[in-house]
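Ops channel
N.P.: pipeline sanity check, posting one input/output pair.
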């Protein structure tokens, strides 16, 4: 009997804007049974607009600016799809993506913000919009570095004299002065004066700009942006080594191309934030417009709308009643003045000074802490009388996904001890990456099977990782993948969601399998408590496949991928990993290793793939089978970004303690040596005389290959220096 609540509805959030971030936080506190939540966003983080001027001025680091969407999605039990939405098919209820197949929704919400990409000749090539923020922030970092090195002049033009344009101009001028140069910053405004603020606030802003040496051009119609200047109709051109567009808010182009009801590309919504005439869609933030209550584009409205959006999404998913929302007409504006000083304006009154910057800083930090300090999800405790040992096991760290959920090597070895070795057509059986069979017509076939508990909530990405992981056994034998069978356990869900998820899984699996030159020929599916994906794979090779027993004294050990994925995924499960590190590791894990196998399979004396038993366990397997010792160089071993810091903080996978016992390492102690890897790198023993040739060949194919140690005669000892 399944004791899980079945999934019956898909909620898809398009864009990682402020409102959606707050919805995810609230959802994690009180998830709705039966709903699968998906967030679609181009990157694993989203910048917080309120702190951007402080970041540009140098008051904040990048880490304080970014909302970690990976962590929020883990908290909410949501899947995160890293891709850009490029359209919506409302008839089929699908979000069209740039690089992945369409994602189906029952209820959807759009929070994709705006752009400041101006429709001015030359701007697309020579300018950068202040929004989206990621692009501008990256360009600003590059420009500031160039100025600091003396490679470029500190000359900036900002097109747009509204609040955003003036605020960024002051921030950039302050940062350039801090870099030891005298900036030349010009704000270009089409109207007769700076806009978007009352008379008192305007005076404060103009005084602050004058103090920073910022020039102001008014009644200036921009005609063209070139590589070194902004051409203005009837006025002298403004020099610009960096040209920033902040003249108004423009709708995302892909939204404007849809059939959504809209005004100038902004999505029309009603008082319930629902898209006009569409009961299944919502829109919020700067990408939306409310005809009944028009308001300027400001982040405060997205934040205030979030609780209403959250309530109404739940109502749409459950058939409940929606709440109406009318945004306030007056709101507090806090404008940074470059240095740690700010203006506060409301009801036409304005004050400025360092105290107001500290107030703004406190508000911004409180908002970000609200999205960072997520409540820990506590596992339910056993109640009543329980068997001996239950309390101890439940008190231990939670069971990891992927290879972190494997049975320990010692237990597995004991269980397999009585199994007969190869006989007849079976050349080798247990003890290697795959069994080796002798083919009747000549040559050899290898066969292996593997399955993984879900590491993440995204079945499609999980399918890619699981397929790459399973094919690793074939690649490690130097064989060509041949046939793949799938074994899929889905969580309990409705027939509609079964069809959606299986389509995603099979599409991604087939893409990986076909690219490897193999065929997906079928498999088996069932429903269970959680997503589990497995594959049985075969491969062929004319000569005897590589095993762990052929290494020779004097060989070098070459590794093709970093270690530390187990630590990162364990930390992700606990909400402790940085989203960028998680996304980067998953990207590597989902990448096939056919090119690496093609190079190494021709020259290696022995090879394996580094998976559940950690680097130490797999090095030891080669050493024991080949009668050798290994000396590894700690500094040479590549490690995933973020893994070292997490390991030092005491984070580890649930399988790591068992790996430590099963594969002891002499010399330097490094827990990452025992970290279980999912879709880990190939580990090859290669003759020292071919080391340079092999690494050059890997590099030529865009692959990584690092020498991590050497082998000598011995009896299975592994030492880390």
């Amino acid at each position: 009997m399944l004791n899980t609540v079945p999934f019956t509805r898909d909620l898809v959030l398009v864009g990682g804007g402020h409102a959606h971030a707050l919805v995810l936080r609230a959802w994690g506190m009180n998830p709705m049974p039966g709903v699968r939540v998906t967030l679609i966003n181009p990157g694993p983080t989203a910048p917080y607009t309120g702190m951007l001027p402080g970041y540009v001025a140098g008051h904040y680091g990048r880490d304080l600016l970014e909302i970690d969407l990976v962590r929020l999605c883990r908290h909410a039990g949501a899947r995160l799809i890293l891709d850009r939405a490029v359209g919506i098919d409302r008839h089929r209820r699908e979000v069209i993506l740039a690089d992945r197949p369409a994602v189906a929704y029952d209820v959807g919400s759009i929070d994709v913000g705006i752009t400041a990409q101006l429709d001015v000749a030359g701007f697309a090539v020579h300018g950068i919009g202040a929004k989206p923020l990621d692009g501008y922030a990256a360009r600003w970092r590059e420009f500031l570095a160039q100025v600091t090195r003396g490679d470029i002049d500190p000359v900036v033009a900002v097109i747009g004299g509204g609040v955003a344009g003036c605020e960024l101009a002051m921030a950039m001028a302050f940062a350039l002065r801090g870099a030891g140069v005298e900036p030349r910053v010009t704000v270009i405004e089409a109207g007769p004066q700076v806009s978007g603020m009352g008379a008192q606030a305007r005076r404060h802003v103009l005084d602050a700009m004058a103090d920073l040496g910022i020039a102001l051009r008014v009644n200036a119609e921009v005609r063209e942006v070139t590589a070194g200047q902004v051409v203005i109709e009837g006025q002298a051109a403004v020099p610009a080594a960096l040209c920033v567009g902040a003249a108004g808010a423009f709708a995302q182009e892909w939204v404007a191309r849809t059939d959504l009801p809209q005004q100038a590309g902004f999505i029309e919504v009603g008082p319930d934030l629902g898209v006009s005439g569409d009961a299944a869609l919502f829109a919020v933030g700067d990408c939306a417009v409310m005809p009944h209550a028009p308001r300027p584009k400001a982040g405060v409205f997205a934040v205030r709308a979030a609780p209403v959006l959250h309530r109404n999404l739940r109502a749409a998913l459950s058939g409940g009643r929606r709440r109406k929302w009318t945004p306030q007409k007056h709101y507090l504006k806090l404008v940074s003045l470059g240095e740690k000083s700010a203006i506060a304006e409301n009801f036409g009154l304005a004050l400025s000074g360092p105290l107001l910057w500290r107030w703004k800083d406190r508000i911004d930090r409180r908002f970000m802490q609200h999205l960072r300090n997520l409540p820990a999800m506590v596992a339910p405790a056993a109640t009543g009388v329980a068997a001996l040992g239950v309390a101890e096991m439940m008190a231990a760290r939670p069971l990891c996904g992927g290879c972190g959920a494997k049975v320990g090597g010692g237990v597995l070895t004991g269980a397999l001890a009585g199994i007969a070795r190869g006989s007849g057509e079976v050349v080798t059986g247990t003890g290697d990456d795959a069994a080796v069979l002798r083919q009747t017509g000549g040559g050899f076939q290898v066969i292996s099977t593997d399955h993984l508990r879900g590491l993440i909530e995204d079945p499609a990405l999980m399918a890619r990782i699981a397929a790459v992981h399973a094919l690793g056994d074939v690649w490690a034998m130097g064989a060509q993948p041949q046939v793949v069978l799938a074994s899929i356990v889905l969580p309990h869900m409705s027939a509609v969601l079964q069809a959606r998820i299986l389509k995603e899984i099979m599409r991604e699996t087939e893409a990986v399998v076909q690219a490897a030159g193999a065929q997906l020929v079928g498999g088996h599916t069932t429903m269970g408590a959680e997503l589990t994906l497995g594959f049985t794979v075969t491969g062929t090779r004319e000569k005897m496949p590589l095993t762990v027993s052929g290494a020779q004294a004097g060989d070098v050990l070459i590794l093709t991928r970093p270690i530390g994925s187990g630590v990162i995924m364990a930390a992700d499960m606990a909400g402790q990993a940085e989203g960028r590190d998680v996304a980067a590791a998953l990207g590597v894990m989902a990448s096939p290793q056919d090119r690496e196998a093609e190079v190494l399979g021709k020259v290696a004396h022995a090879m394996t793939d580094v998976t559940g038993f950690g680097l130490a366990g797999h090095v030891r397997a080669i050493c024991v089978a080949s009668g050798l010792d290994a000396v590894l160089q700690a500094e040479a071993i590549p490690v995933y970004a973020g893994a070292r810091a997490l390991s030092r903080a005491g984070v580890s996978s649930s399988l790591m303690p068992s790996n430590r016992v099963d594969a002891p390492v002499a010399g330097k102690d490094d827990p990452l040596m025992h970290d279980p890897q999912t879709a880990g790198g190939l580990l090859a023993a290669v003759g020292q005389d071919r080391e340079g040739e092999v690494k050059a060949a890997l590099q030529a194919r865009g692959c990584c290959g690092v020498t991590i140690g050497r082998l000598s005669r011995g009896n299975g000892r592994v030492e880390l220096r």
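N.P.: looks fine end to end. The first helix runs from residue 18 to 29.
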